[in-house]
């Protein structure tokens, strides 16, 4: 399978992109190079290889979820530009 200039023009139209003739030719070449590389990958013998979602093992690096003291209201509001009744005061966004 290969990408034609007509395919690039069709996708550009769907994406509402205005491409120059030079860009159309450039993208046609680049997309064909990607497909050629994918075909090369299909030649690899993957028999007996377990499918994976990541190249490297993924582990959770976050801390354990545990209860601990929260920040006090005064500390949280210390650097607030404006506060009212112990809450952050922000400009209204609704009319």
Automatic annotation (TrEMBL):
InterPro entries: Asp/Glu-ADT_sf_sub_c, GatC
Entry keywords, A to Z: ATP-binding, Ligase, Nucleotide-binding, Protein biosynthesis, Transferase
Keyword Transcription tagged: no
Known EC number: 6.3.5.-
One of the protein's GO biological processes: regulation of translational fidelity
Record text on subunit structure and interactions: Heterotrimer of A, B and C subunits.
Family, similarity comment: Belongs to the GatC family.
Protein name (Swiss-Prot/TrEMBL): Aspartyl/glutamyl-tRNA(Asn/Gln) amidotransferase subunit C
Organism whose genome encodes this protein: Paenibacillus methanolicus
